[in-house]
Specification:
Layout: H1 3-7, E1 10-14, E2 17-20, H2 21-51, H3 56-81, H4 86-99, H5 105-120, E3 128-130, E4 136-142, E5 146-151, E6 156-160, H6 161-166, E7 170-171, E8 179-187, H7 193-206, E9 217-223, E10 228-236, H8 242-259, H9 277-282
Antiparallel strand pairs: 1-2, 3-4, 3-7, 4-5, 5-6, 8-10, 9-10
Membrane topology: Multi-pass membrane protein
Protein name: Mechanosensitive ion channel
InterPro entries: LSM_dom_sf, MS_channel_C, MscS-like_channel, MscS_beta-dom_sf, MscS_channel_2nd, MscS_channel_C_sf, MscS_channel_TM-2
Length: about 280
């Protein structure tokens, strides 16, 4: 038996569809060539990413779109080469989808949202975002149906892409290079407000994560029920770890307050009891 005869061996035959050894061989070769080609293209894109770090997300989005388009073309080609009529197959799939449309509506919504994200590029790799439930994370992967976030607790969160399109999302990375945050603090009545302001500014200046420009500033917010309420505003370059920066600031403020005799009061109430016992006796 010759090699050509081996390739022509029929493995499955039903109606107009015939599957031969040649078809299986062709499918394997095409998939292998496609995988190798995509790997080469990925290396090509990585070179550009290293040269143009600022355009990293853009290059990666283009690569993802290209990869999906290539696989769609390859699948259609393989189906046609195997003897399957793509038009007939699509018609059958469409009829099936109509019947189960409500069940997979969310799936198609996520897929469509993934395409929107890749085209509009409102969400990109390494963006620091805050989703609607308050969770803050860094984008480490953008897929066609889902994306992955790495939270501040080093937890990988898988989020459907429709959440990014339909919900309100705060993208900290789309703001200025420096992002402003604040720490609230209250001091006891009678404290030297000028000294408190100086301590807060010094603590911000000594923190390595706080940007020197714009300069931090202090706001005397209010005369509270139990304290004089201050707020120190500062800018940071790395917003993802800002909660750690805030914690460091609070430690430093507490130490400096202790050294300078500035007290942080606790909520308190003065209760005045008026006795009516003596008045009742006189009557």
């Amino acid at each position: 038996m010759t090699f050509k005869e081996i390739l022509n061996i029929e493995l499955y035959n039903k109606g107009d569809f015939t599957l031969t050894v040649y078809n299986i061989f062709l499918i394997l070769v095409v998939i292998l060539v496609t995988l190798i080609s995509l790997k080469i293209i990925r290396r090509f894109f990585k070179r550009f990413i290293k040269r143009e770090e600022s355009e990293r997300s853009s290059y990666w989005s283009v690569y993802l779109i290209l990869r999906y388009v290539v696989w769609v073309i390859i699948i259609i080609f393989l189906l046609e080469s195997s003897g399957l009529k793509v038009s007939v197959l699509l018609a059958s799939i469409t009829a099936l989808l109509v019947g189960v449309g409500f069940g997979i509506q969310q799936l198609f919504s996520d897929l469509a949202s993934g395409i929107v994200l890749l085209v509009e590029r409102n969400l990109q790799l390494n963006d620091v975002i805050q989703i609607q439930d308050g969770t803050v994370g860094r984008v480490i992967h953008i897929g066609l149906r889902t994306s992955r976030l790495k939270t501040r607790d080093d937890i990988i969160l898988v989020v459907p892409n429709s959440k990014f399109v339909n919900d309100k999302i705060i993208n900290w990375s789309h703001m200025d290079y420096n992002t402003r945050f604040s720490v609230d603090v209250g001091v006891a009545y009678g404290s030297d407000t000028k000294l408190v302001t100086k301590i807060l500014l010094d603590c911000a200046a000594k923190n390595g994560n706080v940007s020197a420009a714009p300069k931090p500033f202090v706001r005397f917010n209010n005369f509270g029920d139990s304290a004089l309420e201050f707020q120190i505003f500062f800018w940071v370059r790395e917003s993802f770890w800002v909660e750690n920066t805030k914690s460091e600031m609070r430690y430093a403020i507490d130490d400096e307050f202790r050294k300078n005799g500035v007290q942080i009061p606790f909520p308190q109430r003065d209760i005045h009891i008026k006795s009516t016992v003596d008045q009742n006796k006189t009557h």
